[in-house]
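Regression test attached.
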Amino acid sequence: MLTDIDSLVDRLAEGLDPSDIRTDADTRSEHARDSAPFCEVGDPAIVVFPRSTAQVQHVMRTASRMNVPVVPQGAQTGLAGAGAASEGCVVMNLREMNRILAVDPANRTAAVEPGVTTRELKEAASAAGLAYPPDPVSFNDCTIGGNIATGAGGVCCVKYGVTADYVRKMTVVLADGSLMSMGADTVKNVAGINLMQLFIGSEGTLGIVVEATVALRPLPTDALGLLAQFPSTSSAGAAVAAIVAAGHTPSAMELMDATATGAVSELGHPDLVDASATCLIVESDAPTKEEDVRAMAALCEESGASRVTVGSDSDTAERLLNARRMVPLALREKAMSISPTAVSFIEDVAVPRTNLAQLIDEIEAVSERRGVWIATIGHAGDGNLHPIVVFDAEDPGQNRAAQAAYDDIMSAGLRLGGTITGEHGVGTLKKEWLADQVDPLELAFMKGVKRMFDPQGILNPGKVL
Amino acid sequence: MLTDIDSLVDRLAEGLDPSDIRTDADTRSEHARDSAPFCEVGDPAIVVFPRSTAQVQHVMRTASRMNVPVVPQGAQTGLAGAGAASEGCVVMNLREMNRILAVDPANRTAAVEPGVTTRELKEAASAAGLAYPPDPVSFNDCTIGGNIATGAGGVCCVKYGVTADYVRKMTVVLADGSLMSMGADTVKNVAGINLMQLFIGSEGTLGIVVEATVALRPLPTDALGLLAQFPSTSSAGAAVAAIVAAGHTPSAMELMDATATGAVSELGHPDLVDASATCLIVESDAPTKEEDVRAMAALCEESGASRVTVGSDSDTAERLLNARRMVPLALREKAMSISPTAVSFIEDVAVPRTNLAQLIDEIEAVSERRGVWIATIGHAGDGNLHPIVVFDAEDPGQNRAAQAAYDDIMSAGLRLGGTITGEHGVGTLKKEWLADQVDPLELAFMKGVKRMFDPQGILNPGKVL
């Protein structure tokens, strides 16, 4: 084994700077996983940090010749385990390919390397008077390569869509090191069969994105918003339905269940008066935002809200949305209160919007049945929920209970006509669930696509399929 | 051959009503082509009109057992020849599968069979207070199955996107008659590799859509608009750029070159005072439409418009947009004036928005060089142009000149960083051009996808690839 690694390092060094090829235990350990719990993680043999497309090609050519698995990795913020190392693999971390290649305001596009963070792209767009909307919670750190690999979403999606909607053009390195371009520089393109969308959300199993051109939009104005507190999930669900039925297009529509509200309320938030409320935070960045927010506030009241706070300026709206942003901190506090070894695990499930309230109720029932603490937040306008399970990872009983709760939530989502993942991906965590959602024939063809692009099966093996 | 056809008819009759299996010369001739000129057309052996998914499956099972090519067909409005029969094939016309299965206002979706026309879907959505935006010019007749097969667009796309953006879920019958479902009922879904987008725009080469669930949107209010007349394409192009740069999101942004303007002007239109102007028609359906239209009118004037007419109410806006809608009639008149056997042929090419004015100028140069009459209209906001060539199809010289002009326009589009088709598809017409646009490796994988889904090569053979 050792000789193999030495010989692999030697071959990699023919194309990469030796300092970008790491075999030390610290680097290997740092790059062994992403941010998903529960998933099997192996010890990578080598971690490489390519700095150019040619270097990515060299790594893949070398790996395919030596039949070594390669796990592509970005900021390691993934929540489904697609970035977790397999035993003896080469982890290819793309953070060093982080140049913004072009911002074209007249065509409203930007061309970037995969290691550019979502924040950096947003800032570059903003400097040109434009916006790149997709905003996964980890946008400060996560990379565009990872966003494309997972098909990432965020708070904005209810109005502005997901990562897949923004990719115009893409260059990938395939398993054998060859380079392939897809897409076009035009707004519309229907020339041939659309292979590009295969790669978006394929979690590094089909190829490695080395360059992407994304669409940008006009910069929206600051949003106004409201925070509504409801005595029940059903009344909050009714408000979501009423807002949609009235034809509103909010720029954010976030929900916090009573447990999440309680946790944030313990930290203290000036507007969260009822710690047991289900909260809905709705924003509008439309030119008519004042009247939109007033109308949506009225709909919340009609749906049974016990209290509605309207942000009459963007600072107040910011403060209201902050209740949602405080959730991670509140959960860390919650975890600490459970045990020093407690962790929080964020789930991702989506159902048709009309089944949202029922899913929240089912998650509450799961929490009670399994005896685990679960707070649910989510993108209500998309029917996309993130139940967050907090449990002591060192306690075998709690670990089992958390896993059982996770399984129950997946089942409930599918039973309610939903999907096992709206925006985080399948990774290693949901592989077994995929067969419960998709048509067996479709699954067989997904595997056929994988074989077509990676006949040796060296690209992120064991992920997704 | 005759025996084969008889035996094929017998087998088809095991699953279809005999009256839905037609071999008469009239039916065969009526269903031999779509609306594309220049393409090779064969005489189909049989035309079938299945009425259910099971019948589509029966046709495909029969065809694959007997190794007979099948050409799926809708309203025959296609402009690239994907619906043209090949010699001895079975044409499967899906117009009889035309039920609207469900409209779900709370989830903003509709489920339809493939033979539903775009107009019928729009009306069903509208009856539920919602909109299905995609609006190809043929929307009165063209079917959703055809829209999905071609990845159809329209006037609305500049603000509301294309057909591919609206498909949530799809069931297809594959070449061997098996049934496969893809997608989900949720707004977001990243479970597994996205095979559904392969089928959108694949022009019937991978499978036959038998059911689709599409997203609907809130019904926009009536648009206001303006008609600006420019002394040159470059000043019209500057106006497009200025409107985009100012962050406007028009709901339509249509362009007519001087030749198209002249043709409409001959029919008579109250607002077209200068028959040699390049015209830009811009609409807004935003809540701020009054001020948007005023601001965009000012930008047109600053860019050098010789005259700007603002539609101060929706009736006037309608009248202005009518200038664009009069183009087909004006072209029929133009064709008649050339010869009783003259036809008009609508092209489809798209470039990055910044190259739009240059492409229009190049098309004018092509018209002069080749000695053919070409009027250009297009979706300016998307950089998507439709040059329309009017020529006498019976005159060999004009036929050759028209084909040469077509080739020149494709070349110019590609040279300007564009695509050979923004929304009409490749069909048979642009097959040879596809290799000039896409990466050879991508083309090889497109063929791999085709082989994977249709190893016998019986589904719409010779189209696209």
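Expected vs. actual: identical. Chain B has a mean pLDDT of 95.
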